[in-house]
Every structure is written in structure tokens, then in C-alpha cells.
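Incident review: delayed structure delivery

Summary: a single-chain prediction request sat in the queue longer than the usual turnaround. Root cause was a stuck worker, restarted by the on-call engineer. No data loss occurred. The affected request and its eventual output are reproduced below so the record is complete for anyone auditing the incident later.

Affected input:
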Amino acid sequence: MLYVGLDVHWKTSSVCILDQNGRQVKAETVRGGWQELKKWFRKEFTQPFAVCYEASCGYGHLHDFLRPRAARVVVAHPGHLRLIFRSKRKNDRIDAQRLAKLLYLDEVPTVYVPSIEVRDWRQMIEGRRRLVGKRTRCKNGLRSLLRGHGIVQPKKDFKGLWSKKGRRWLASVALPTELALLQRDLLMEELDQYDRQVSRVTEVLDRIGQGHPGVALLRSIQGVGPRTAEAVVAYIDDPQRFSRTRQIGAYFGLVPCQDSSASKNRLGHITKDGPASVRRLLIEASWQVIRHCAVARALFDRIHAGKKDRRKVALVAVAHWLSRCMLAMLRTGEWWRYAA
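Output delivered after worker restart:
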């Protein structure tokens, strides 16, 4: 068995190969992009090998290529590797050598690699979030434009500025300069474009969610909508990969930082590891779950204890509890049991 450490980049990749005794037998730089790296792997190895590389953009594609060819493929967590190797001497060749040594010692901090379908599902969820953010910036730009010229929305004529009547009024409102009119028109064109894109992405995500049993299971929680349910299911993917439900809090970054030594134990802010979009959705859903679930409300009130500065802490605790409930539901297939 050979142990291969890869420091992968788009145009060049450094390779270090160790034998079964941990001795370096080859170090090489493959130039010419990933296609050349694939050719190199096809012609280089005639005996079983294990390979390790860091997770980066496109790591899933490389994993799909190597998995049928290698006896073992390990994708390393970049953040945890930086904690292991704190050195002032760093280059691609050294990084490949360190990855090979960690692979030989079986001490690589690994990341989970989902299937290509789940990876694309995650990308679409994140893409929708970015589109919604761009649409919100357009709306804020239009509000700023009106406020900058002292124009007040006539609330009695229509319900909201983004309704059909509101947009017709916005398109016909008189602005003092040609530049302001141009800015208004451009922002409204952008807003219409993002509306169409968000609707198109939402339609596809809804279709995927309706066909996934895990999404339907999590939507049985009162206060959890389709966006939260699909994001949690997509990022958990395989619930059996977590040995305990407590691990999901650390995966989503909802546990506090800890500095413990002897009799002192200091807990700080949450770690914020993992996908920020899922963490944000869980926090938003927790407000609704508190309204509908007596158990969540009791947990929030106990931690809150009537103190204003404890509201955020209590909300994060409810989000942590909610994520553990979700993982347990996905593992057992049991529907939401708590009533209001």
C-alpha cells in the first residue's frame, strides 16, 4: 500500500508518495491543471494506494474521480489542518508531505463528501440565498432613493411598496433629475430580474423537497418551513454519520467556544463552524418554534430568566435543541411529537 499526499491547485499540484514503512519514495509536481493530474494518476499507479488532499473548490469532483481507483480517499479539513501544523515554513511540497504522513498515521481530520446530487442541492440552496440577498439590496436601494428625495409612500393607496400597485406607483413617481429616474428604472429592472430568478429556483427546490421524505418529516415541526427543512436535510445528508445527536450542534457551530484548564472552565461565543446559512435558518425558525411548542418555550424562558441580555443566548440554546431534535427525527423516522 502506498500513501499519497496531494496539495491540489487548479494549474499545478504537488504529490508526495510514502511506502508501507512511511519512507518517502517520490515527490513530484504535476503541471497543467486537473486533466493532467488525472492522466498522471491513470499511468502512475499499478499497486493499491490511499490518497489524501484538502477540501477546496471542486473537491467533490476530484473525489468522484479517485474513489473507483484508490483503495481509500481521504479529504482533509483545511481549518483543522492549520491547527495541527502551525509552521512558518509552508509551501506546496511540504504540505503534500505532511498530508501523506497524516494519512500514513491515520490521523487526518476528515470532512464528509456527499454525492454529486447532494452537492448540487446544497449549491442551489446557497444560490437562492444569494439571489434573495441581491433582491433585498435592490429594494433597499429604491427605498434609499425615495428617502433621499423626500418622497413618502402613500400607505392608504396600497398595502406595500412591492405589491403590484406599489410597483406601478414606484414606476410613475416623479423624480427631480434625469439621473434619479435612470437609477430608479435600473433598480426596478434588477428587482424584476431577481424576482424571476428566485421564483425559478424556488420552484425547483420545492419540487425536490416534496419528493424527499426527510424534508416532509422536518416540516411536521410547527414553525419550520420548507427552506429550513431542505437546508438541514441537505447538509446532514446521512444522519447515521453522527454517532450522537449532540454532535449536530458542533457541526452547525451552535456550541460555545471552550477554554478549560484545571478547575477553570470558560465558555465564550458560539464557534460558528459549519454552514452559516443553516445556522441562520435554524435561529429564525427557533422564534416560530418557541411560539408553537411548549417545551421550546419553557427552555427559552428558563435560560432567558427575564433578562434582556440573555435573550440571544436562550435563542441559540433553542436552536441547538431544535437541531438535535431534527437529527433524531431523521435517524428514527419519527414525526414531531411536541404540541403547543
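Verification: Residues 215-332 form one domain.
Action items: add queue-age alerting; document worker restart procedure.
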